[in-house]
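testing teh design pipeline on a random one, pls ignore if ur not involved
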């Protein structure tokens, strides 16, 4: 599987101003936590969440609540809202939409497989140094034999009154605990070069494109 990332910057009238596109090489350890929980029949201790805290994840077969990962797409709601999603066989949970799906940040420290979070995530908001997070979406996979791709995409709007510099991006995911707890994990992190400076009133589209080629 190949993956590429793209940041596209628009003005407030949606005129395209800049495109930065590069290969993604940075699926990180959280991705393997997720795969283990989906495929195994055992617990996975010491899974590090975005707060650098070790959590024990239970396989879906052991506990149909503990391993139920939230969907990457944060519904259609804005980034500050909580997103309700079905988890396991019986329960509904809420997770912070700005911590589900694509996230962006301002740290250009080189990515490593052990990264558990973005270096400095740019938070959802309207104050200095923040961006408004739109809902994250996952497009239907598209196949043209023998190739296929799937796109994860999110829009960010700068209404902070000043420039916001984006130097990293990634994907966060949530997992529900056995007693109404939500934990967040980073499954991908990439450093963006060159950095993208989003001026006040401008819009940023961040995209992960996953591709298979036979």
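output:
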């Amino acid at each position: 599987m190949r993956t590429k990332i793209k940041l596209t910057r628009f003005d407030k009238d949606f005129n395209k101003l800049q495109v930065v596109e590069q290969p993604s090489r940075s699926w990180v350890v959280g991705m393997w936590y997720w795969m283990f929980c989906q495929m195994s029949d055992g617990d996975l201790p010491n899974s590090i969440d975005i707060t650098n805290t070790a959590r024990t994840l239970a396989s879906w077969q052991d506990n149909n609540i503990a391993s139920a990962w939230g969907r990457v797409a944060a519904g259609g709601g804005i980034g500050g809202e909580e997103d309700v999603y079905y988890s396991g066989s019986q329960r509904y949970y809420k997770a912070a939409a700005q911590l589900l799906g694509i996230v962006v940040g301002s740290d250009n420290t080189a990515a490593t497989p052990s990264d558990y979070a973005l270096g400095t995530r740019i938070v959802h908001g309207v104050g200095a140094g923040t961006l408004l997070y739109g809902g994250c979406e996952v497009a239907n996979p598209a196949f043209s034999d023998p190739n296929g791709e799937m796109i994860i995409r999110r829009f960010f709007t700068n209404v902070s009154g000043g420039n916001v510099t984006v130097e990293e991006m990634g994907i966060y995911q949530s997992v529900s605990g056995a007693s109404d707890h939500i934990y967040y994990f980073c499954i991908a992190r990439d450093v963006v070069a060159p950095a993208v400076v989003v001026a006040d009133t401008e819009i940023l589209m961040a995209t992960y494109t996953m591709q298979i080629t036979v």
